[in-house]
């Protein structure tokens, strides 16, 4: 049995994770932490994996505490930067206890597949833009999923030797969305949405649209459980669920 702790256990995602872990035949929910509870009181003697769905202001400190304790971490909280990821890698190297940390911008299997398809397709199109749609209670924009998608698209385009997407805009750049590694990303916040993404790719005379929709947070639970089962075998930092989905050539 994998002994699992959930951080942010009373939040929207944390509640679903607790239910999913409880229902899994190979897992045991051993701790539920929320605001005011101390992560550094968890022990590797009692916890194998901790799942973090807290808030961006707390998640990095939580991960450092888990690394220090030798507890593997699965992290769904977004808001990570290149600098904060580097700090996690440095902490892992300093502690040197073979702890695994898996940070996933999105645990939806369909979302991960959409990102992989987009990365593959981006080599063949002159233009590409990303639109992400979320509920208005989300605190970060663009979403971690959209940033991850754009960064992977940009890397694929650089590897293919493609020029930047054409754009003759001279005024009103604030309407063109965020620039993530040269890829424009647009964020919509609207009541009634959960989590949705479109990747638009264009050539003269043709367009490819890749769209993914998460209508309920239960859609993320298979990916969370997949990560909990895999993280113990992946010491160090892993960013993105695609690395444990055996996507082969499309990744």
From TrEMBL:
Task: Report residue spans for region: Disordered.
Answer: 155-174
Keywords (alphabetical) are: Amino-acid biosynthesis, Cytoplasm, Diaminopimelate biosynthesis, Lysine biosynthesis, NAD, NADP, Oxidoreductase
Q: What Gene Ontology terms describe what this protein does at the molecular function level?
A: 4-hydroxy-tetrahydrodipicolinate reductase; NAD binding; NADP binding; oxidoreductase activity, acting on CH or CH2 groups, NAD or NADP as acceptor
Which residues are responsible for catalysis? 134, 138
Q: Extract the SUPFAM superfamilies matched here.
A: Glyceraldehyde-3-phosphate dehydrogenase-like, C-terminal domain, NAD(P)-binding Rossmann-fold domains
Which is an annotated Pfam family here? DapB_N
Give the top-rank taxon of the lineage listed in the UniProt record for this protein. Answer: Bacteria
Among InterPro entries, the record links this protein to: DapB_C (IPR022663), DapB_N (IPR000846), DapB_N_CS (IPR022664), DHDPR_bac (IPR023940), NAD(P)-bd_dom_sf (IPR036291)
Q: Which residues form the Dihydrodipicolinate reductase N-terminal domain?
A: 2-107
Annotated pathway, please?
Amino-acid biosynthesis; L-lysine biosynthesis via DAP pathway; (S)-tetrahydrodipicolinate from L-aspartate: step 4/4
Give the record's family classification: Belongs to the DapB family.
Role, per record: Catalyzes the conversion of 4-hydroxy-tetrahydrodipicolinate (HTPA) to tetrahydrodipicolinate.
Name by which UniProt lists this protein: 4-hydroxy-tetrahydrodipicolinate reductase
Question: What organism is the protein native to?
Answer: Jonesia denitrificans (strain ATCC 14870 / DSM 20603 / BCRC 15368 / CIP 55.134 / JCM 11481 / NBRC 15587 / NCTC 10816 / Prevot 55134)
């Amino acid at each position: 049995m994998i002994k699992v702790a959930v951080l942010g256990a009373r939040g929207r995602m944390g509640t679903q994770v607790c239910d999913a872990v409880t229902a899994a035949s190979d897992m045991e929910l051993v701790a539920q932490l929320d605001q005011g509870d101390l992560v550094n009181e968890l022990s590797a003697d009692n916890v194998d994996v901790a799942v973090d769905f807290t808030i961006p202001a707390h998640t990095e400190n939580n991960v450092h505490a888990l690394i220090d304790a030798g507890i593997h971490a699965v992290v769904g909280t977004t808001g990570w930067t290149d600098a904060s990821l580097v700090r996690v890698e440095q902490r892992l190297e300093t502690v040197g206890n073979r702890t695994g940390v898996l940070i996933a911008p999105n645990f939806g299997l369909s979302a991960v597949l959409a990102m992989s398809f987009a990365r593959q397709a981006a080599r063949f199109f002159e233009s590409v833009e990303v639109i992400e749609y979320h509920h208005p209670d989300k605190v970060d924009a663009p979403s971690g999923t959209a940033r991850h998608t754009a960064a992977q698209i940009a890397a694929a385009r650089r590897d293919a030797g493609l020029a930047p997407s054409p754009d003759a805009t001279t005024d009103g750049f604030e309407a063109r969305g965020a620039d993530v590694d040269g890829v424009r990303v647009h964020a919509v916040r609207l009541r009634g949405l959960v989590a949705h993404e479109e990747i638009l790719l264009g050539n003269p005379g043709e367009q490819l649209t890749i769209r993914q929709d998460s209508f309920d947070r239960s859609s993320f639970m298979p990916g969370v459980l997949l990560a909990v089962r895999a993280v113990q075998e992946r010491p160090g930092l892993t960013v993105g669920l695609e690395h444990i989905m055996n996507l082969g050539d499309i990744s």
